[in-house]
Design a protein that fits this description.
Blueprint: H1 4-7, E1 20-24, H2 28-38, E2 42-44, E3 53-58, E4 62-67, E5 82-86, H3 90-99, E6 105-109, E7 115-120, E8 126-130
Parallel strand pairs: 1-4, 5-8
Antiparallel strand pairs: 2-3, 3-4, 6-7, 7-8
Length: about 140
């Protein structure tokens, strides 16, 4: 077996960023309501694919792609399959979720000082809402 450095001695191609997260959903309209009303995501124009779906902006350059007609179970959780959205103010987001009566996992503080909570979409996909790490830690 080759040493680790030997396998990676060729020039590497550039990875610019994570472009999008794609989630299979059962009912696109129900999912759109959740992502627009609860997570306040901005809808985007979506190409005319031959299957139902919706696209949303995540931050400045990333996207969330919802793909309809899910017929497989979702396996997601805070220590399993999930994605995280960096937020600005945890107190405001918790108040927003409470106002909408959306259940979420109680706030935790990571070892680096970032706050995190978790919500679940209508299909069972787990979404982490987190603040930036505390740079003084």
């Amino acid at each position: 077996m080759a040493e680790r450095g030997e396998c990676y001695s060729l020039p590497r191609m550039e990875h610019r960023e994570l472009n999008h997260v794609a989630l299979h959903v059962e009912d696109v309209a129900v999912s759109c309501d959740f992502y627009e009303r609860v997570l306040e995501l901005e809808p985007m124009t979506r190409p005319s694919f031959q299957f139902p779906g919706a696209w949303y902006r995540l931050g400045t350059t990333q996207e969330l792609h919802l793909i309809g007609e899910r017929n497989e179970p979702v396996c997601s959780g805070n220590r399993g399959n999930h994605y995280a959205v960096l937020i600005d103010d945890m107190d405001e987001w918790e108040a927003h979720l409470q106002k909408l009566d959306v259940k979420y996992r109680e706030r935790r503080t990571r070892p680096d000082g970032a706050f995190q909570i978790y919500v679940t979409d209508p299909d069972g996909h787990t979404i982490e809402l987190c603040t930036a790490p505390d740079i003084s830690t």
